[in-house]
Automatic annotation (TrEMBL):
<dbReference type="GO" id="GO:0016747">
    <property type="term" value="F:acyltransferase activity, transferring groups other than amino-acyl groups"/>
</dbReference>
<dbReference type="InterPro" id="IPR051822">
    <property type="entry name" value="Glycosyl_Hydrolase_84"/>
</dbReference>
<protein>
    <submittedName>
        <fullName>Acetyltransferase</fullName>
    </submittedName>
</protein>
<dbReference type="InterPro" id="IPR000182">
    <property type="entry name" value="GNAT_dom"/>
</dbReference>
<dbReference type="InterPro" id="IPR016181">
    <property type="entry name" value="Acyl_CoA_acyltransferase"/>
</dbReference>
<dbReference type="Pfam" id="PF00583">
    <property type="entry name" value="Acetyltransf_1"/>
</dbReference>
<keyword id="KW-0808">Transferase</keyword>
<feature type="domain" description="N-acetyltransferase">
    <location>
        <begin position="66"/>
        <end position="206"/>
    </location>
</feature>
Length: 207
């Protein structure tokens, strides 16, 4: 049995752990990274700090452990600007930019460090119709049984309540299970790039 609740600051370590343990297209990425926090710094931490009202977790009622989360923001462009001002600068002091290392030779840690220095921007073509975005990750113990759908429904309702007209997300090209999950929820493919697929879902009718 699981409890779905708003995320709290005390969940930060659990969010970072889940991010790492699902960081290889849904599989455990612990063995890939020397620094166990670096993935969380990019894909979990900024949401808990700068968009806590759109962060929800699953808590195992038996163990009390957090076993899944969904994180999002209603305005991606504004969120990116906030991170530029407040989130990335201290992390850039901790993680050197591996710009001098050829892309093909970078370690997994260096590839993420590069994102800290050069965070990708959501294309305006996507933001026009789908200004919100989200990340969802569940450990195997929480998968199935409708837990993922419950997390998504909770966040989508929150984004809709904040006035977001649409939401987008990215998923690894090889993660066909997740792609099927999003498609079942009504997401449609917006674009495809080497290694990644972007999906979008309309939340409200345009005014």
């Amino acid at each position: 049995m699981f409890t779905l609740r708003p995320a709290r600051e005390t969940d930060r370590a659990a969010l970072y752990r889940i991010c790492l343990e699902t960081g290889a297209s849904g599989q455990d990425a612990t063995h890939l990274y020397t620094d166990p926090l670096i993935l969380g710094h990019v894909y979990a931490g900024p949401y808990l700090t700068h968009a806590p009202g759109f962060a929800f977790v699953l808590e195992d009622q038996g163990s009390g452990e957090v076993t899944g989360y969904v994180l999002g923001v209603p305005d991606t462009a504004a969120f990116e600007a906030t991170l530029d001002r407040e989130w990335w600068p201290p992390l850039r002091e901790l993680y050197p930019d591996p710009a001098g290392v050829p892309r093909a030779d970078r370690t997994p840690d260096e590839r993420i460090a590069h994102l800290i220095h050069w965070p990708p921007r959501a294309p305006q073509a996507v933001l026009t119709g789908y200004p919100a975005h989200l990340h969802i990750d569940l450990l195997p113990a929480a998968q199935g049984g409708g837990q993922g759908r419950a997390l998504m429904t909770t966040l989508l309702d929150a984004l809709r309540g904040a006035g977001a007209r649409g939401v987008h997300l990215g998923v690894g090209e090889s993660n066909t299970r997740a792609q099927g999950f999003y498609q079942h929820l009504g997401f449609r493919e917006l674009s495809r790039a080497p290694g990644a697929v972007t999906y979008g879902l309309t939340l409200t009718a345009p005014s």
